[in-house]
Structure formats: C-alpha cells, structure tokens
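General statements about sequence and structure are easier to judge against a single worked case. Part of our work consisted of pairing the sequence of a single chain with a tokenised description of its backbone. The amino acid sequence and the backbone structure tokens for this protein are reproduced below.

***
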Amino acid sequence: MKLETELKPGDIVLLKVLACILILFFTLRFLVFPGLEKNQDLQNEKEQVEQTKQEMQDTIKQKSIVEKKIVKQKAELVNASQGFYDLLENQQVDELVTGIALKHNLKPVYLKIEGTEAGVPAAYQTVTQTDESGAQTAKSAQEELDENNQESSSDTDYEPEVVLQYVNTTTVSMTLQGNEPQIREMLDDIARNYPGVQVRSFDMNENTYVDSSLQQISQNNCECVLAVYTCGQLGTTASGEEN
C-alpha cells in the first residue's frame, strides 16, 4: 500500500490553524500570564507601600498629640509615685521589711519574697461614679467588675475600659518572733509611716518552750503577709526567693 505524501489544501489549512493555536498558547503561557502575575504582585506591593506611607503620615500628624500624652503620663506617674518606692530588687525588699522588724526588736525567722507583678489587686482600687442626683460614690474595682460582668451577660458588645497601671506589687511572707506589744507596734508603725507597705494579713500565736536553764519561756510568733508597692515600668519579673 502506497502512502500519499502530498498535502491537500485542507491539510495545509489545518496545519496553519494548529500553528496559530500553538503560537497563541505559548504566547499566553510564557508572555501574557507571567506579565499579569507580575503586574498583580506589583499592584499588591504598591498597595502595601501606600498603606505604610499612610500609617507613617498619620503617625507624623499625631506626633504632637503623642508628645502631649507622654508629658501628661509622666506627670501622672510623678503624682502616682508619691508614697511608693522605686522598683526594688528582692535584696532591697528584704532589707526594707527586715529593717522594719529589727526596728521593733523583732526576730525574723522566715522570709519569702514573691515575684513582682504589675498593678494592684482589684479589691484595693476604687472607681468614682456619679449617680442620678449628681453625687459621687466610690466603689471598689471588684464591685465594678461584678456589675460589668452582669451587664455583659445581656450585652455581648461590652468592652471593659483598660486602666493604665503605674504601680507594681511585691508580696512578702514572713514570720517574726517577739512579744505582742512589739508586734502591734510594728503593725501600727507600718500603717502610719510606710504608705508603700501594706499588711495584707497577720496571725499571732504563742509558743511555750524550755530553755537551757530549764525555765519555761513563752514566745509569740507572728505570721504576716506584706505587700510592697513600687512605682515604675516593670521590665522583667523578679524571681521569688526564699530565706
């Protein structure tokens, strides 16, 4: 059987159509589509640059506002720091509370310093509100938080106001030995003269023992928890140490 090698006019047309399709395909695949993808990437990059530019412009416009806010916060920090200590290391806290105890001839037998935490407990904060009659009432932050929680149960869009904290709290647990008048004098001294130190709790108990001369001696032990308030920006949390 002999194969025909001559191209008929119809075959030539089909070849031309196929060649055009191949040219169109390679043009789209290697020229048009990559160009479109690059154009889209450049468009996205342009939008990101414009967004960054807009943010920088907004920041520049708000520079004066930010500077005024910084000045105001520094003034608030100075006012808030009255009666409080600067940031203290654990050793400094040890020297502070031990010095108070030794000042009243008490013997520290146990001391534990917890890590410093930002803020003060909610129960010790107060929130001033104005009622319908125009009078101002003071509520603890814990009461305010409980009321807000009740309101938020019916209002899912409630967002509590964030209060900027300047004060840090270091909790100290210590056990002291001495007579009852000395212990009470120390507690009164802290309440009167140390606004940056607060007695959270204390418990006195009497122990009786026999000394080397076989004499019965009564000794009072006071287990107390103190809060030392410091003012400043808390960088790293101090690790607790126990003596």
About this structure: Confidence is low (pLDDT under 50) at residues 126-131, 133-138, 152-164, 236-243. The first strand starts at residue 85 and ends at 86. The two ends are 109 Å apart (CA to CA).
